[in-house]
Specification:
The chain contains 12 helices and 10 strands. By secondary structure, the chain is α+β, with helices and mostly antiparallel strands. Helix 1 packs across helix 4, helix 8 packs parallel to helix 10 and helix 9 runs antiparallel to helix 10.
Length: about 375
């Protein structure tokens, strides 16, 4: 079915991204996987391309677009070629909305030019060892001392944490109350060159190997009060504000991955000969691919509808939970079936389907586990 979700500007941007991926990413991608992240200057190339400033207002040096669909184009084009842009999804889809929504005028003028150029890469640090998704249980603290906060604690699973120049750290600036465990959390923008700021282990993951993920620790890190994002104590409210876009971004990536898996499988089964015939000639192959393509089409329709709703400001947290839950489950089933059609070669990392398979597993965990999403959806329908 013909897609109507993208306009001419989106499609022109798609051609630019497709050419960039083929020239600047695909040839070097195996080296990035070995290193655990792209080279630092790659992010400057993305800045020169304009990727980081698409939704930044023009007065700060951006393009002033408001559509999320440009981010979706990047996800789709990367998936088609079996690669990714490292930790840039966090930089653009997670951190930027916080800076735009809650940053002061002074903060935007101070940070956004370097954000757009790639001279300043960012990450966000919420999860702590032992607390997981329970943000209200975090123990990282920030105590006000004159014109600085003194930050102490630790974070884990921080995507982009190895190369980040500034990290949005969620910390407790006042005790929780009996009525509200989520009270007292604030967001501090921390310069990673600060004394007492340390990057611990670079975590070794089974997938997303070009996305650097780290443990962070803070020992009496002094953060200027002018680096407080928004109001003190409003951190939890701010975090929930952006969850819908975060989950939509994951849903788009998941759908794109599933669609790419079908494309890789179709190409493989046409070329691969078994018992003197192409694998594509067997009825089982045809049936499996038909099932996969149908699921991908359903996920595409759901994702497109959610993107339209988001651009109109109408995507609710429950709607975002539904589309992420559905798209990630489709991704898991489709990628697994397409790997099976590759036979033993599907388990070899030089084939894109193997990378799609290992990368897919985390999408049902990060950005809200499938179990958490089901709870949100159940609450919406009154159970």
């Amino acid at each position: 079915m013909r897609r109507t979700v993208f306009n001419e500007d989106h499609e022109a941007f798609r051609e630019t991204i497709r050419d960039f991926v083929a020239a600047e990413v695909v040839p070097q991608f195996p080296e990035w996987e070995e290193a655990g992240h792209p080279p630092r200057d790659f992010y400057n190339k993305l800045g020169e391309l304009g990727v980081f400033g698409i939704t930044v207002p023009e007065e700060y040096g951006g393009a002033g677009e408001t559509s999320f669909k440009y981010a979706a184009v990047i996800s789709e084009e990367c998936a088609k070629q079996g690669v990714n842009f490292g930790a840039t999804t966090v930089h653009v889809n997670l951190v930027l909305p916080y800076l735009l929504a809650y940053g002061s005028e002074e903060q935007k003028k101070r940070w956004l030019p370097d954000f757009i150029s790639g001279d300043m890469m960012t990450a966000i640090a919420m999860t702590e060892p032992g607390t997981g998704s329970d943000l209200a249980g975090m123990t990282t603290t920030a105590r006000l001392d004159g014109d600085h906060y003194v930050l102490n604690g630790a974070k884990t699973f921080i995507t982009g944490g190895v190369l980040a120049d500034m990290v949005l750290v969620v910390a407790r600036t006042s005790p929780a109350t009996a009525e509200n465990r989520r009270a007292g959390l604030s967001i501090l923008c921390v310069d990673t060159k600060s004394d007492g700021y340390e990057v611990g282990r670079k975590l070794q993951k089974i997938g997303l190997r070009t996305s650097d993920t780290a443990e962070l620790s803070f020992t009496d890190v002094r953060v200027p009060v002018e680096n407080l994002l928004g109001e003190e104590g409003r951190g939890f409210d701010y975090l929930t504000h952006n969850l819908a876009e975060e989950r939509l971004a994951i849903a788009v990536q998941s759908y794109a991955s599933a669609a790419a898996a079908v494309g890789f499988a179709v190409q493989y089964v046409k070329d691969r000969q078994v018992f003197g015939k192409p694998v594509s000639s067997f009825q089982n192959t045809k049936f499996v691919l038909a099932e996969c393509e149908t699921e991908v089409e359903a996920a595409r329709s759901f994702v497109d509808r959610a993107m339209d709703a988001h651009d109109l400001g109408e995507l609710t947290p429950a709607d975002a939970a539904k589309v992420k839950l559905f798209a990630t489950e489709v991704q898991a089933r489709v990628v697994d079936k397409c790997l099976q059609l590759h036979g033993g070669y599907g388990y070899i990392l030089e084939y894109p389907i193997a990378r799609l398979y290992t990368d897919a597993r985390v999408t049902r965990i990060y950005g809200g586990t499938s179990e958490v999403l089901k709870t949100i959806i159940a609450k919406q329908i009154g159970v």
